[in-house]
Automatic annotation (TrEMBL):
InterPro entries tied to this protein: HTH_Psq
Pfam families: HTH_psq
Protein name stated in the entry: Transposase
UniProt GO molecular function: DNA binding
Coiled-coil ranges per UniProt: none
Signal peptide region: none
Domain of life: Bacteria
Span of domain HTH psq-type: 10-30
Length: 62
């Protein structure tokens, strides 16, 4: 979170995205993503959690 804010502040004060990427040792794509969101987006799972195949029989097994 701190890096996110420092990158946004540096670019808003006149540093180019390329310079910010080099200065903070991150990719230019990361800098562009940091500038496109006002707050860091949280982690979102792409697919739902898969349940075990034996999940339907757990009560029988126990």
């Amino acid at each position: 979170m701190e890096l996110y804010l420092r990158v946004r502040l540096a670019v808003s004060e006149g540093m180019t995205q390329r310079q910010a990427a080099k200065h903070f040792n991150i990719s230019r794509d990361s800098v562009a993503k940091m500038l496109s969101y006002s707050t860091p987006p949280g982690y979102q799972r792409r697919s739902p959690i898969r349940r075990p195949k034996l999940d339907a029989f757990v009560s029988t097994i126990d």
